[in-house]
Amino acid sequence: MTTYKKTKDNTLDNLKDQETLIRRCTLDDLDAVIEVNERELPEDYPYFFYKSILDDFPESFLVAQNYAGKIIGYIMWRVEKTPSLDSLRYVTKGHLVSIAVSQEYRKRGVAKALLSNSMATIKKYKIHEYVLEVRVTNYSAIKLYEQFNFQIVNIKKKYYRDGENAYYMTLNSKKS
Ligand SMILES: CC(C)(COP(=O)(O)OP(=O)(O)OC[C@H]1O[C@@H](n2cnc3c(N)ncnc32)[C@H](O)[C@@H]1OP(=O)(O)O)[C@@H](O)C(=O)NCCC(=O)NCCS
Questions:
Q1: Whole-angstrom Cα Rg for the chain
Q2: 144 CA to centre of ligand 1 in angstroms
Q3: Ligand 1, residues 45, 106, 132, 170: which to mutate, most atoms within 8 A of Cβ?
Q4: Which residues pair with 135 in a beta bridge?
Q5: For ligand 1, atom 43, which residue shows the shortest CA distance?
Q6: Would you tell me which CATH number, out of the four given (3.40.630.30, 3.40.50.300, 3.30.10.20, 3.30.470.20), belongs to the domain 8-127?
Q7: Cβ within 8 Å of residue 66, ≥6 positions away
Q8: What pLDDT score was predicted for residue 18?
Q9: Which residue, by CA, sits nearest to atom 48 of ligand 1?
Q10: Ligand 1 atom nearest to 114, measured from its CA
Q11: In angstroms, rounded to a whole number, what is the distance separating the alpha carbons of residues 167 and 170?
Q12: Cys bridge to 105: 17, 72, 74, 89, which one at CB 3.0-4.6 A?
């Protein structure tokens, strides 16, 4: 298992508690990332999906690990070219695919650290805006995104497999 010391050179802007490390995800981490996802979120994805995001956008696929090297959170993004909402132009967007933090490590700023570090790196793809979907009842996540100045611009009806609606939230990359 990767130790805290060994990965220290590979770290980003980390948490102040010195016990949680934010760093780039590697192929060896994928099983642990999937474990966190399956425990913490109803949306799950096949292994190849994670692998393709890691292959294509490795700089913004980050993990949080505890002092013992255990993966306790992750965030992954992809870059997309889609039509803008207000014109026929195509714009480049950083799309937040998934973020989760293990229950026992929540409310310590881990998600904030994952978001701020990954938003800084995905910006390098010259994105016009950051976009994401969130369940309309996921108050803690909505609050988190609002702290980063994301705004609700739309509701996607029955976006999730169980029929729940999603808020579509965006943030102009120049405002981040
Ligand atoms: C949403 C989630 C990622 C937040 O992780 P976290 O590490 O606990 O978040 P942080 O400690 O960095 O908190 C950042 C901000 O999020 C908001 N927040 C987090 N947990 C909250 C809660 N239980 N109630 C209200 N607001 C909350 C607050 O605005 C908080 O800032 P504050 O501490 O200054 O009040 C975590 O709850 C989670 O993994 N949930 C399950 C997966 C999920 O819903 N992912 C999002 C899918 S769109």
A1: 16
A2: 6
A3: 106
A4: 166
A5: 100
A6: 3.40.630.30
A7: 19, 20, 21, 72, 105
A8: 67
A9: 134
A10: 12
A11: 10
A12: 72
pLDDT for position 150: 98
List CB contacts of 97: < 8 A, sequence separation 6 or more. Answer: 53, 76, 77, 78
User: Ligand 1: does its nearest atom lie under 6 Å from the Cβ of 99?
Assistant: yes
Report the separation in Å between the CA atom of 107 and the middle of ligand 1, taken as the mean of its atom positions: 6
What residue's CA is closest to ligand 1, atom 3?
100
Ligand 1 near 101 CB (within 6 A): yes
Residues 130-174 pLDDT 10s: 999 999 999 999 999 999 999 999 999 999 999 999 999 999 988
Structure confidence at residue 11 (pLDDT): 53
What percent of the chain stands above pLDDT 90?
78
For residue 6, pLDDT over 70 is answered with no
Indicate which residue's Cα is closest to atom 24 of ligand 1.
140
Evaluate if residue 10 carries a pLDDT over 70: no
Q: Where are the domains of the chain?
A: 8-127
| Ligand 1 atom with the shortest distance to the CA of 43 | 47
- Per-residue pLDDT reduced to its tens digit, 31-43: 999 999 999 999 9
Q: Residue 33 burial (CB < 10 Å; 0-12/13-18/19+)?
A: buried
